[in-house]
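Ops channel
N.P.: pipeline sanity check, posting one input/output pair.
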């Protein structure tokens, strides 16, 4: 979907405009309104559904204000102007969802108190109308607001709170940008609230950014086989917009699959609010192993954070994806890796988050599968991550970077890295933001990604004047025969060695320091012995 035209500063401004931070605070209070009556997963669906409805309504009003301010409107006869402002194509052609009158937030807010059956009936009807009028939203939006277990009074209070938030009128920032930030903020807050259960829909932002910065998905097909709420796709588009401008953010086409219905809905809405095509995550949720919805896809980039060490998965021993060995039923890690390899184009590359055990496990044939993948020269880089990055699991994690082509790739003029693997040990990186959570800082992300790009000889490394060299304790490039000697264990700490301690040129020479300390030690003993004699003499006098 092409980016929606931005309103000029001042256009479409509305009373009650809030800063993004104020909107976030207002909406988190709205979530708290429902916290007491349902669990985090349920109120997530309620609140994000309402936020989305508010967003499409505000974006619709913003577009309407643009049309009303257009000088060409004066050329339309006055009696036809109102009809012109209700023409669906004028909105959809501007990449704005068409919002029927009874689905507009103002209508819902104005009629909330008097609606028969409560405001929930209005909201369910609004969701239904939106889905009927916008094919991209078909089956996506929640119709859960008029159920018997929903407290309509509390829901009305929630609607009132959300009415205080405006997603438009932020200078030259369109509603899409503002709500995109709010939506990401909420996903992060809900992930913290849900703890371990949040792993199915949320990957920490700094980990996603690291995957994107290393892979550099400027153009082509981006695939995520366990896409959660779509964060990999959103960050990929942001990366392209940041490096090459907003007009190029749609140079990538996204393809994903998600097994959980609720999470799939979140992904569809997340893509929509970021101006991306919701069809990218399919027409329906489905299990990637049992029902691959994209059997013929060949992707330029794959990014994934699949469930760690999953034992309950749809294993088929004769699956053609198991080219390097059949993964065990007890653990799907190597099923994910081989599925991802099967999706890579001839020059495709991938970044995958897995548990640390995947780098060294030899159980149930996993060691043999790993050896076959190494010998096939599919492994480009292994990164050991620091602990506490994931609130959703205490299991230490690592990153696998895979590639189908380590050659210079013609005009790209990359360094030839055939039969080599880069190891990066980032376990000592990151900053604790509270007692239990660590994040990778921008400096950390840059150090790791720059190291990879310097090793691979990419254009971004050349532009920065970077060249690669091994750094003891941090990075090391190993030949495949060296990895074979280590029995195909891919743990970076085994290869990078210990950190070298830089010598201070003004420091005291070691031999001189030893002599000085020895002399001081003997002097201490002599003084201690002298004091012992004095004490004994004093005690003798006291005793006498």
């Amino acid at each position: 979907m092409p980016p929606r035209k931005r309103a000029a500063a001042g256009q479409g401004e509305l009373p009650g405009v809030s800063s993004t931070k104020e909107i976030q605070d207002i909406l988190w209070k709205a979530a708290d309104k429902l916290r007491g009556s349902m669990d985090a997963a349920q109120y997530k669906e309620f609140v994000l559904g309402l936020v989305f409805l508010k967003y499409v309504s505000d974006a619709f009003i913003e577009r309407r204000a643009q049309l009303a301010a257009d000088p060409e409107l004066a050329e339309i006869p006055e009696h036809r102007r109102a009809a012109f402002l209700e023409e669906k194509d004028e909105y959809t052609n501007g990449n704005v969802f068409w919002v029927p009158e009874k689905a507009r937030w103002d209508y819902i807010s104005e009629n909330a108190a008097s609606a028969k059956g409560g405001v929930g009936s209005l909201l369910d009807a609004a969701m239904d109308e939106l889905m009927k009028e916008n094919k991209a939203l078909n089956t996506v939006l929640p119709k859960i607001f008029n159920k018997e277990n929903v407290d309509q009074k509390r829901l009305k209070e929630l609607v009132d709170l959300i009415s205080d938030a405006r997603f438009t009128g932020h200078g030259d920032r369109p509603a899409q940008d503002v709500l995109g930030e709010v939506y990401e903020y909420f996903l992060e807050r809900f992930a913290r609230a849900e703890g371990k259960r949040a792993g199915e829909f949320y990957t920490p932002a700094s980990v996603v950014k690291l995957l994107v910065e290393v892979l550099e998905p400027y153009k082509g097909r981006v695939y995520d086989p366990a896409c959660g709420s779509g964060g990999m796709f959103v960050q990929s588009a942001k990366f392209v917009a940041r490096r090459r401008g907003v007009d190029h953010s749609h140079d990538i086409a996204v393809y994903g699959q998600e097994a959980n219905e609720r999470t799939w809905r979140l992904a569809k809405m997340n893509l929509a609010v970021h101006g991306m095509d919701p069809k990218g995550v399919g027409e329906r949720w489905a299990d990637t192993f049992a029902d691959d919805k994209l059997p013929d896809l060949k992707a330029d980039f794959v990014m994934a954070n699949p469930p760690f060490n999953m034992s309950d998965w749809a294993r088929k021993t004769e699956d053609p994806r198991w080219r390097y060995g059949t993964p065990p039923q007890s653990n799907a890690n190597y099923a994910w890796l081989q599925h991802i390899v099967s999706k890579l184009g001839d020059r495709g590359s991938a970044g995958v988050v897995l548990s640390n055990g995947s780098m060294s496990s030899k159980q149930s044939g996993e060691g043999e599968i790993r050896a076959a993948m190494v010998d096939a020269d599919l492994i480009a880089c292994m990164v050991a991550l620091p602990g506490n990055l994931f609130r959703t699991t205490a299991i230490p994690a690592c990153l696998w970077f895979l590639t189908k082509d380590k050659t210079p790739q013609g005009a790209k003029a990359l360094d030839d890295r055939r039969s080599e693997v880069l190891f990066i040990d980032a376990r000592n990186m990151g900053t604790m933001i509270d007692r239990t959570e660590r994040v990778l800082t921008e400096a950390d992300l840059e150090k790791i990604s720059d190291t990879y790009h310097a090793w691979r000889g990419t254009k971004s490394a050349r532009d920065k004047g970077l060249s690669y060299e091994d750094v003891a304790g941090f990075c090391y490039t190993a030949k495949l025969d060296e990895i074979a000697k280590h029995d195909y264990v891919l743990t970076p700490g085994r290869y990078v060695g210990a950190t070298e301690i830089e010598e201070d040129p003004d420091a005291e020479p070691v031999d001189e320091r030893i002599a000085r300390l020895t002399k001081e030690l003997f002097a201490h003993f002599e003084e201690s012995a002298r004091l012992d004699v004095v004490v004994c003499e004093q005690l003798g006098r006291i005793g006498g």
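N.P.: looks fine end to end. DSSP finds 18 helices and ten strands in the chain.
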